[in-house]
Amino acid sequence: MRVLFSITYYTPYVSGLTIYVKRLAEELVKRGHECTVLCMRHDNNLADSETINGVRIVRANPLFRISKGFISWEWVVKSWLLTKSADVTIVNLPQAEGWMPAMMTRNKVVAIYHCEIDLPNRFIQAVLEGLNWLTLAVADKVITYTEDYGKHSRLLKRFLNKTKYIYPPIPIPKTTDLGIKKPKGETWIGVAARLAQEKGIEYLIGALPLLKNCKIVVAGPVEPVGEEEYKNRIMKLVEKHKDRVRFLGTIDPEKMGGFYKLIDVLVLPSVNSTEAFGMVQVEAMMMGVPVVATDLPGVRVPILKTEMGEVVPIRNPQALASAIVKVLKTGSYFAKHRDVVLTEFNINKTTASWENLLNEI
């Protein structure tokens, strides 16, 4: 089957959304499908077209950027050309320009609703949500990660009759030596995230005074698009605890197993519905690392399904600190549930669910 993915950013840009699409496309290629990704050329150093791991990548040159999105005439042209040869078009939302390939295609459309949006500019948010609603309306099927998230989503509530729930594709991480030495006696609290305001990193930093001999270690981009103001705010907080917060920068997703091996607990202090699941928490669990995550729809699902961590209220440094202490004291109990994680979130089951969906529509 010829599958076209529509997404604004794609590899080498790193986010949960880009990692999801990359993994799914490559898994489908392994099973004999022909996959093409249409995305924006967000970096001038990237090629207009290339093939990575069997997936053809076509990039449209933008005219200019608005917030985290782009205006591009090339996107219109390439959408028209690529949808003509696709058996199914998979649009990855949120995406302002995704309605174009969704409307242009003559075949089936699947919309993956990865997450809600929460932008400081309410006008831009309203426009983007309107365009996402249009894509959802024309889609033959809508996919989101969990029923918990779908039923709490602002936009998906109107489309539950055609919504299907499929976990993200999450392979077992490979153990890789990152060349990072952890000092004896230190406890490392891991965060695997971009410096983006929905990640709530400030609340974890706020928990540090309540934690002894603990250091926060952050793996993820420190220069994410459109988050300059948030980064400045976080760095001011880090100055007060500079010996207890360490940024490792972007780690290749294929090497994240090395990061999980270094940490004692992974924390997702996310604060709003822009976070819909948190694939990194499942990856950590697969490596035997317990998790503390906030009580958000979708985000709480991996812990509730596996009992391999603690769920805490959002924006609450005290609750984060208490849960981290509890998890660290009872780590061996949580590690016993690793087999449940491997069964519940098996990537072969996820890919098979996608193949069944593509054959059904």
Model regions low in confidence, pLDDT < 50 over at least 5 residues: none
Q: How many beta strands in the DSSP annotation?
A: 16
Average pLDDT level: 94
Distance between the termini: 12 Å
- Please trace the helix and strand order, writing H or E for each element: EHEEEEEHEHEHEHEEHEHEHEHEHEHHHH
Q: What would CATH call the architecture of the largest domain?
A: 3-Layer(aba) Sandwich
What features would you highlight for this structure?
alpha/beta; Rossmann fold; six-stranded parallel β-sheet; 361 residues; globular; 38% helix
Summarize the structure.
This is Glycosyltransferase subfamily 4-like N-terminal domain-containing protein. This protein is α/β, with parallel strands linked by helices and 361 residues long.
Describe, in plain words, how this protein is organized in 3D.
- The chain is an alpha/beta fold.
- The protein is built from 14 helices and 16 strands.
- It folds into 2 domains: 2-170 and 346-360, Rossmann fold; 187-344, Rossmann fold (3-Layer(aba) Sandwich).
- 38% of the residues lie in helices and 21% in strands.
- The strands form 3 sheets. The chain has an 8-stranded mixed beta sheet, sandwiched between helices. A 6-stranded parallel beta sheet has the order 13-12-11-14-15-16, with helices on both faces.
- α3 (99-104) links the parallel β7 and β8.
- α6 (201-207) crosses α11 (317-329).
- It is globular and about 60 Å long.
